[in-house]
Amino acid sequence: MKPNKIASGAVSPDAHKVVAIRVLFVMAAAIALSGAVFTAYSIVAQVTFRVFNAPLPGALLGLVVVYFGVRSFLSVRKLREEVYKKSAKFSWNNFKKQRSAK
User: Has UniProt tagged this entry with the keyword Transmembrane helix (predicted)?
Assistant: First the structure.
């Protein structure tokens, strides 16, 4: 049985942060790229969708996907700044809903 790299200290927690952030960057870029490819394909192939009985160009759907990909990419950049701080620690409390005071 191989020893656990994390338990032995061979891989630092900071290395895990870097890998996680890079994966998020790659995923956001892949979303934006897939939207751009679909937009180009929709323009070339004249793809349309029927929405509420009205034709909607496929390029419009592709542009929406590009928008969300770019937005995700920018969000990951902001997240990276927060995660790389020395004071950053994981807490389940970050996932709890904030109740507004009435």
Answer: yes
Number of domains comprising the chain = 1
Domain range enclosing 58: 15-83
Torsion angles phi and psi, residue 33, rounded to 5: -65, -40
Does residue 21 sit within a domain? yes
63, amino acid identity? L
Q: Give this prediction's pTM.
A: 0.71
